[in-house]
Amino acid sequence: MKKLLFICLVLLSTKGFSQSFLNRFEFGLKAGANYSNFTNTDFATDPLVGFHAGATVAFKITDNFLVQEEFLFSSQGAKIKGDANVFGNNDIKLYYISVPFLAKYRTNFGLYIEAGPQVGMKAKEEVKGLTFGEFAKKLDLAAAGGIGYQSPIGLGIGVRYIYGISKVGDFDIANIKTDFRSNVAQASIFYVF
User: Fold this and answer.
1) Most CB contacts within 10 A, which of 67, 103, 130, 186?
2) Burial of 121 by CB count in 10 Å (0-12 exposed, 13-18 middle, 19+ buried)?
3) How crowded is the C-beta side of 38, counted as CA atoms within 13 Å?
4) Helical (H) or strand (E) element with 75
5) Residue 89 — very low, low, confident or very high, per pLDDT cuts 50/70/90?
6) What ranges do the domains of the chain cover?
7) pTM to 2 decimals?
8) Percent helix, strand and coil across the chain, each rounded to 5?
C-alpha cells in the first residue's frame, strides 16, 4: 500500500512538473518587411526592399526574461548602381534560412527588447548576368537587436536591426573586394499562441 501511494504521488508530481514546464514555451508566427544593403563595397549600392516570414519558439526563464529562437525565410541584398561595374545595374537578391537566437526582456505591459546572434544559410541567390559562379557565401553570421510590443492576446509588432559580421562575397574578380557585409532593418508583425 505504501509503494502504491508513493507511485501515485510521484506520477502526480511528474505530471504537474511536465505541465508547468510545457507552459513555459511560447510558439508563434511572424512576417514582415526587410530593408537591406551592403556596406564597405567597391561598387555603389542602394537599399533593397525584401521580406521575411516564419515561426518562433521562446522559453520563459522567468515571467519577464525569455530565450527566443526563430526560423525565418528572409530575402536581402542590394540594388547595384551604375553600368560601369561588373555587376551592371541590377538587383542582387539573396535568400536565407535565418535562425536568430535572442535573449529577450519583456515588461509586464508588453514592451520588449531583444539581442543575440543570427546564422543565415543561403537558400538561393538571384544575380542577373553572373558568369563567375557564386556571388555570396553559403553562411551569413550577424548580430541582431530590436524592440517591440506584444499585446496580452499575443499579437505584436517589432523592429530589429541585423548587423552583418561575416563577409558576404564568395567570388574572385580583380579590383573588387569581397569583404563587404550585409545589414538589414526589419519591421514585423507576429502572433504568439
Assistant:
1) 186
2) exposed
3) 27
4) strand 65-80
5) confident
6) 25-192
7) 0.84
8) 10, 60, 30
